[in-house]
Structure to design on (229 residues):
């Protein structure tokens, strides 16, 4: 049973427009959510995170929104740049002694066209 | 070298071979992780080490054997693997396990093919 799902395998966006990547989860015990970005031949790199006590967290061009009632989070990138083209993974962790155990989604391939 | 490094980057092995994957972190972290990413599947956590002690074994078959001789090095020993074990194996580290909010830093991965 996949607890974190990214239902869109890919997304194509024009440079300068907004990219919206979506993620759904089923485990109501998750209380911390993260987005990672991965370029080819590199490991994932941390992008932005949000705690379940918040509904929005912003860092420059990147904003993560959390809707706990819908068990949904999204990553907004605005404006999108060609260098943002990568695979984006959402991840979640449970409170308490989670020992850094992250549950990942399958990833969404973002392509930003010049 | 900086960050998290993994060797080899690519590995092809037969089902009867024994090989090892190596991970080294140069960040002074105390926690290290092995993940597996199969084609079209999410990253799956395999093992977690904190201060060289294994704290998580996520129902991984015994043909995968981790070793953490010190807080900077992590190995994954492989023996009698199956073709379905072909995947990208990623190593990660974080400052410690005291806070789940510690960012995990990933290596570039080892692309393993089992023939």
């Amino acid at each position: 049973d996949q607890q974190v799902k990214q239902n869109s395998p890919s997304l194509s966006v024009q440079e300068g427009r907004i990219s919206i990547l979506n993620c759904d989860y089923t485990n109501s015990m998750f209380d911390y959510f993260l987005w990672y970005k991965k370029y080819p031949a590199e490991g994932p790199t941390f992008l932005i995170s949000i705690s379940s006590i918040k509904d929005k967290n912003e860092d420059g061009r990147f904003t993560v929104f959390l809707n706990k009632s819908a068990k949904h989070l999204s990553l907004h990138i605005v404006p999108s740049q060609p260098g943002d083209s990568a695979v984006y993974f959402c991840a979640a962790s449970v409170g308490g002694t989670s020992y850094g155990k992250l549950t990942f989604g399958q990833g969404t391939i973002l392509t930003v066209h010049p | 070298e900086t960050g998290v490094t993994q060797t080899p980057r690519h590995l092809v092995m037969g089902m009867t071979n024994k090989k090892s994957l190596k991970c080294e972190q140069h960040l002074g972290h105390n926690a290290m992780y092995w993940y597996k990413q199969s084609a079209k599947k999410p990253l799956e956590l395999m093992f977690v080490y904190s201060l060289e002690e294994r704290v998580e074994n996520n129902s991984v078959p015994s043909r995968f054997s981790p070793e953490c001789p010190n807080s900077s090095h992590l190995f994954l020993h492989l023996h009698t693997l199956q073709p379905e074990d072909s995947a990208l194996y990623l190593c990660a580290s974080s400052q410690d396990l005291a806070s789940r909010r510690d960012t995990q830093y990933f290596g570039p991965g080892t692309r393993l093919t089992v023939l």
Notes: The longest strand of chain A covers residues 30-38. Chain A is about 0% helix and 55% strand. Residues 32 and 51 of chain A are 5 Å apart (CA to CA).
